[in-house]
Amino acid sequence: MSSTNDNKPTFDEFDEINNPRPDACDFDRIVDTAISRRGLMTGVMAFGSFAALGSLVPAGARAASDRFAFSQIPTNTEDAITVPEGYKAEVLVRWGDPLWSDVADFDHATRGSAETQARAFGDNTDGMQTYSIDGRTILVVNNEYTNTDIIWGNREGGKAETDDDIAKGMMAHGISIVEIAPKDGIWGIVKDSPYNRRITPKSEMSFSGPAAGHDLLKTDADPTGTTSLGTWNNCGSGPTPWGTYLTCEENFNGYFSASAEGWEPTPELKRYGISAADWGYGWARIDERYDVSKHPNEPNRAGYVVEIDPRDPNSTPKKRTALGRFKHENAECVVNNDGRIVIYLGDDERGEFAYRYVSNGVFAPGADTDALLDDGTLYVAVFSDDGTGKWVALTPETTGMASQAEVCIHTRQAASKVGATTMDRPEWISANPNAPEVYMALTNNKNRGVKPNAGGDETPVGGPNPREANNYGQIVRWRPDNGDHTAEGFKWDLFVLAGNPTVHSDAYGGSDNVTRDNMFNSPDGLQFDSNGVLWIQTDGNYSNAKDFDGQGNNQMLAGDPVTGEIRRFLVGPKECEVTGLTWTPDRRTMLVGIQHPGERGDSHWPEGGDAVPRSAIIAVTREDGGLIG
Amino acid sequence: MLQGLTRRHFLAGLAAFFAAVAGSRRSRASAPTKTVRLQKWRCTNQDCDPYIYDPSLGDINIIDEANPIPPGVAFEDLPDDWICHVCGDPKSHFIALNEWVEVEVPA
């Protein structure tokens, strides 16, 4: 296409024309886009094409170089945030910042107590969304886990000494809901907002969907199998079109331990990684339900997608069992052309699977949505080497299991029974707002072609997992047949194979869109912005040596789904993971999560000096106040 | 951090290696050995497999691959700068498992 049009708008003008300063938040926009697309989409679109957007945009504005409004930055290993010229990054909220004014500020010497932590921003920020409620901006954030030698870094060897130490760690898990607002142009949290809320492993929840009330969910404390306490290890998230927040329980297994001598996990528990020792959190010491030899059904009550209503701080979150039980990464919700809700889901474990949920009912704004996440069908992906794939329903008929409840509790086993494709650790999934296509990060898998998954399924090299002992990761994308997200079939290709072209000249050097200047490893967070730019966040090897030489700290890049171009936008501080991405409703501030800086002891970010490193969300803006995503 | 090879560590690895070689020679010559009971340790990094250090197997010792850790070295006796060869986490991120192995070592 020509790029010599004298009337070609600048990137900013293009943005302002097509994206006037909005007052609605992300999911409203997603719904609007989905609904308007119903009239626009006809038949099969060329893979990655921007048919819907293309009809609105002057030809010149579609030149590849206009997709990004920034110049690429080089990688580095500094203990700082680096963003391109013309942008700035400021800290919005950190682990331990109080959400109410009667709570003490974070104490670097003690790192707080269980009491202060329960009313302060949680640790290790992860998936997040913003919501416009009554003219306010409400931020909902997952606090995934704690690094024991940071939160207990005031103790000998970074080990918990008291029950309060352990309880403090527990209270740093869960969800933080906090109002945010700009003050003198800089976004900060609003203490004492009526919407502020902490959800922790002690918060009451209910089960809904096929598994609710099943014998495998019953415990001494909950003989009905319908209520539960809390959520923990919440990784990614997803907004629903009706304004709720889906939070995803991931490595829930690492919190259980067994007190009984010689206790061995059943094969069902073993598939989910439950063992006699926890990962150092020590929760069974203060709460017996985490002692799996005493309460063997308790692990069956975690590993779900939980729905939270940020509009009502007193609402009871619901564990939506219809979406299956595994190590949920995120939940990407799409309104299909026919109004049905489709949710794409990934299981972040070496050699586990990619899933899709399709509701039976249709979404209508304002109507009761409660059944949409309970009544539906769960599918698992089977990829073929020829670039096609299909979704296989997980039901008692296809799996031979006794009931749908069992399918929803032992979802990994159900997927194994139908021959699902073992993947290289499914991470975030994001749907392109401008085309019926879906992207999923496959972060890495050292076991690819080396050994089977925990269920004994082989992990052959091939299809979307093309490299043995894959240490760099890739992003796969699929386009549902006929643009219908409920279709059985899809076509797939790889958007990028990450790699290191300075070290390798074979497939481990990466695909053509990976260069010495933009290389990275272990794509993890994925999020399309409203313009259809794919933002990629990494959680990989930051040694900057050997196979990872020249790749620096973990980072965030922008990808163009049409041209495949990838450009580095942000480099995080030392020993962090960059995870979690959303925008303020005016789209002039991008919120980025910086998780576990200094996880191995070599960071003092964000405060510097001798300060304790603290996971934090940063607010990235343009110095000219322009739109950003 | 993968380049953190120290002289002290190098010598420790060398000594362990020669001890292992000497031990195997002695055992062939029916030299005295003893059986010790050692604990397995597991890496706690969320993204690790997780790797379990098994003293009956030793370790490839990724920071000094020329000097692998021979069987029979207790986790506590690994060099301070030893790291998990799967994810790179330090020793302090490992926890002891209630699983024990018996290893024959030079008496």
From TrEMBL, chain A:
<dbReference type="InterPro" id="IPR008557">
    <property type="entry name" value="PhoX"/>
</dbReference>
<dbReference type="InterPro" id="IPR006311">
    <property type="entry name" value="TAT_signal"/>
</dbReference>
<protein>
    <submittedName>
        <fullName>Transcriptional initiation protein Tat</fullName>
    </submittedName>
</protein>
<dbReference type="Pfam" id="PF05787">
    <property type="entry name" value="PhoX"/>
</dbReference>
